Amino acid sequence: MVSVSGSTLPRKIESFQRELLLLSWQGTDQRLIPLRNCVEEELIARFSHTHSLFRDDNKMVYDFLEAATRSTIYAVSIKPSQRTKNGRKAYTALIAQHAGEDKWERELKSQESFLKTRVWKGNSAFSLEKFIEQHRAGYISMQQCSEHVTFQLPDEPTRVRWLLEAIQCSDPNLIAAIAHVRADKTGVNAKRNNFEACVAYILPMDPISRKRKAQNNGHTIANVSGANVSTGQKESVGSTGVEFRYYTKAEYKTLSDPQKVELKSWRQKQHNGKNNGKSKTSNEQDGPVTKGQLRSTVASVIQEQLSKRQKKQKQSDEQFNALCHALSEFSGGTSANATAAAASGASSRDERVVKFATKLQGILSRSSGKKSE
């Protein structure tokens, strides 16, 4: 009896299965087909395309591909196989057009360029941890590409060298950590020869993460300082017993004068804190604006505009009367007649005087408008 070791048993079983498969097909097909690497590839290579189930399987494969590529740029590739529902043809077209060697080489070139040329300076909110994750993702993508095209993957020292060269930050703690990694070269697990060990050592020195942590600690201290030490909650009741909240008109009237003063002071502090210390203007009100307040505001604005218009009209009338008085005196009338004409109104004035006065007043108004501009 021949003994077989455990390591060679699966290999012998697979070889025996391949021999049986070859003998079973020699009776029907005399063509010499080269043997594959495994039984699965052998079955794929020798499966008949004239079997009764091939048509159904072929159509099912096309349906799966059509559903997967629907409304994408890849749907054009399987369009020629739409009428015949040829899944095998659609699959080979997709592989040839979108998963060929040129696509893998392009992805490989892109990832290699990223690992060699992209730098991290630590000037923005993009942390060192995210940058290292991009390095990991690029290396994993290169591993996938190497399964389809011939390429020599970078070893661990090369990955560490690319990462350290890409970090161009002036933070002293991070610079010291990088120098320590470059000096640690002895042994297989040395930081200079192990990418993950290097990352685990320099990542805690990330200035972006340390700055965020310091800011979060500062916010926590600020929140604790604004809380009530005895209860652990923020103040909600003042020394006069007034609650710091919104009050309706009826509720506000029931408050005492000291409570109103304390409530007003508290609201002023809250408003100044929200507006970075800016003082509250006279137009701002505590609480929402009511209809009565809006009506009174509109009425005051309208009254102000009417007063301005009446004042302007009065000044215009006084100017016109003065012009008429001056023109009447200039035309030969006495000052007494001019004064009586001005007092009696425009009906007793000379038409020429009124006409000249109107023109002169228009000229004066236009000239004053230009000066104001």
List the helices and strands and how they pair.
Blueprint: H1 9-26, H2 39-46, H3 54-69, H4 87-98, H5 101-117, H6 128-146, H7 156-166, H8 172-183, H9 195-202, H10 207-225, H11 249-253, H12 257-274, H13 291-330, H14 335-344, H15 351-372
Helix pairs in contact: 3-4, 5-6, 13-14, 13-15
Provide structural commentary:
The chain has 373 residues and is mainly alpha-helical. Among the domains are: 8-47, no CATH class; 101-210, no CATH class; 241-279, no CATH class; 309-372, no CATH class. The chain is built from 15 helices and no strands. It has helices at residues 9-26, 39-46, 54-69, 87-98, 101-117, 128-146, 156-166, 172-183, 195-202, 207-225, 249-253, 257-274, 291-330, 335-344, 351-372. α13 runs antiparallel to α14. The relative contact order is 0.03.
Characterize this entry briefly.
This protein has 373 residues and is mainly α.
Highlighted features:
mainly alpha; disordered N terminus; elongated; 373 residues
Q: What share of residues is helical?
A: 55-70%
Shape estimate: elongated
How many runs of DSSP E, i.e. beta strands?
A: 0
Which strand-content bin applies to the residues?
under 5%
Q: What is the helix/strand order? A: HHHHHHHHHHHHHHH
**What low-confidence regions span 5 or more consecutive residues with pLDDT below 50?**
1-6, 26-32, 220-233, 279-285
Mean pLDDT: 76
Separate helix tally = 15
Largest sheet, strands/sense/barrel: none
